[in-house]
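User: I'm writing a short methods note and want a consistent example. For Aspartate carbamoyltransferase, I'll paste the sequence; you return only the structure tokens, no commentary, since I'll be parsing the reply automatically.
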Amino acid sequence: MSLPYPHRHLLAIEGLEPPYIAGLLDLAESYALLNRSGKTQRDLLRGRTLINLFFEDSTRTRTSFELAGKRLGADVINMSVATSSVSKGETLLDTAATLNAMNCDLLVVRHGQSGAPALLAQKVSAAVINAGDGTHEHPTQALLDALTIRRRKGRLEGLTVAICGDILHSRVARSNIHLLTAMNARVRVVGPPTLIPAEAARLGVEVFHDMRSGLRDADVVMMLRLQRERMAAGLVPSSREFFRFWGLDAEKLAAAKPDAIVMHPGPMNRGVEIDSAIADDPARSVIGEQVEMGVAVRMAVLDVLSRQLLRNA
Ligand code: ASP
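Assistant:
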């Protein structure tokens, strides 16, 4: 198969050309099938070292990169800040020098500062994958969301996708907006004015401040977590009031198409941005499938980046 991805790192979706997005999704689809068959492909990354370097908490992303790396045969090491020298004040660049000395091949980085993975990418010999940087991007999340949508709806083009809630602090929203608009979906952002970034209109999305009009005839409803840890001041009223206006319940979901799917990147605040009855409804919610597709997408990303390493060797 020809290379579906020509770059050395995966730092962002912005600027990634549609054929490469489609190529990565196709490859991830084949990994999804492989995973369901229970088979592995342990030769691909045999002898490669994958380091998961997480400066922020994570459950799904870190675990699924670990699983993806192991399924492809890599030696996987998890470094979390609490147990590394970073908590003793080592700078990002010293960390990079250490990783180079260890001959790390694939480096998965999550950091609270936007741009930190890009900085590391300039200093390390490894291929760097951004696993979420500040409020900037979370590219593998957007890819796994797109794969889930494509499996359920058969396409991305022409679909109406409503991304709802705390858009301002969400790297998931930013990566999804870039990916979905590049693939010609119609993207809406829905939320209170305090949680919609001023740049939204420039990103080619429609802005709504009311759930019922924002969800009208949507094919996909993507809910986001209220990211209180990134809020400098009280941008929202109480959680209960937020749920009343912006939380997804059966009544608000009724505005979307009858077969609309419901997504959430996790972790969920049940009863704040989403009602448990919706999150757990197998007829509407694809949240479990998103997690499953996360492993497949990360296998595809590790696959293409390791082939690039061989080319550049
Ligand atoms: N897990 C996602 C992220 O790391 C979404 C979230 O935290 O709300 O951005």
